[in-house]
């Protein structure tokens, strides 16, 4: 009996110690992982809904300024996936790589937007449904502004350069969405050529955001 009792007592002590260590306290890396996944999921849902609403409007209006914004919003929403995986893995390396994926996604969307704007300059076609187009710009602004708030707050709280970069570019995109409203106004004023020009401006703004996000990720890496 004493031989059985001794190891049993030792096991109880381990359990007690383990319980005392975790009671009322979640492991910091697990808590950070959950917070990160929550922030990423929320921003994905917000941007996904905004992009879907804009898709419906694009089908109606055919605006290149809106398409440039729409493509970027979809790309922006998808950057949540590698970030979410990184938080789930609780890996700093995966998080840095996700940050690089964010920068790559922004760059690709800038290229696509630029190509589409040039094509529309070569083959002019004025957008229609201008009121709906302006509404889509407002949807893009609201979606990106909310996503930026979620990402930046969580990024600062969790000291995540990847989330901060994603938040910065969502905030800039919110202002880019305002360019869609400007496009609706200039076409309504009888200057349809301004629509693809605004599309090109959006492309340049996205390229600038790419550079800023790259500096954020790189700065954090060297730091």
CATH topology: Alpha-lytic protease prodomain-like
Number of domains: 1
CATH architecture: Up-down Bundle
CATH class reads Mainly Alpha
| Total E-strand runs | 0
> Please, what is the average pLDDT?
81
Question: What is the straight-line distance between the termini?
Answer: 59 Å
For the report, how would you describe the main beta sheet? none
Topology:
Blueprint: H1 2-22, H2 28-61, H3 64-78, H4 80-89, H5 92-122, H6 130-157, H7 161-188, H8 194-222
Report what the structure shows.
The chain is an all-alpha fold and 223 residues long. The chain has one domain (29-222): Alpha-lytic protease prodomain-like (Up-down Bundle), CATH 1.20.1510. Helices cover 88% and strands 0% of the residues. The protein has helices at 2-22, 28-61, 64-78, 80-89, 92-122, 130-157, 161-188, 194-222. The chain is elongated, with a radius of gyration of 23 Å.
Briefly say what this structure is:
The protein is an all-alpha fold. It has helices spanning 2-22, 28-61, 64-78, 80-89, 92-122, 130-157, 161-188, 194-222.
Essential attributes:
single chain, 223 residues, mainly alpha, Alpha-lytic protease prodomain-like, elongated
């Amino acid at each position: 009996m004493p031989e059985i009792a001794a190891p049993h007592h030792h096991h109880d002590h381990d359990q007690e110690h383990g319980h005392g260590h975790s009671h009322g306290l979640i492991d910091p890396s697990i808590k950070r992982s959950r917070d990160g996944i929550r922030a990423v999921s929320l921003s994905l849902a917000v941007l996904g809904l905004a992009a879907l609403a804009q898709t419906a409007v694009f089908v109606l209006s055919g605006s290149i300024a809106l398409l440039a914004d729409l493509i970027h919003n979809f790309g922006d929403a998808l950057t949540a996936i590698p970030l979410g995986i990184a938080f789930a893995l609780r890996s700093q390396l995966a998080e840095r790589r996700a940050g690089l994926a964010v920068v790559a996604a922004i760059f690709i969307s800038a290229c696509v937007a630029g190509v589409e704007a040039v094509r529309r300059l070569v083959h002019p076609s004025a957008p229609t449904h201008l009121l709906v187009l302006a509404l889509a710009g407002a949807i893009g602004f609201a979606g990106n502004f909310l996503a930026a708030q979620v990402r930046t707050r969580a990024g600062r709280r969790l000291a995540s350069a990847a989330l901060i970069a994603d938040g910065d570019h969502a905030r800039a995109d919110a202002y880019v969405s305002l360019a869609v409203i400007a496009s609706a106004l200039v076409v309504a004023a009888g200057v349809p050529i301004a629509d693809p020009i605004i599309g090109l401006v959006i492309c340049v703004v996205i390229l600038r955001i790419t550079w800023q996000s790259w500096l954020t990720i790189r700065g954090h890496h060297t730091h």
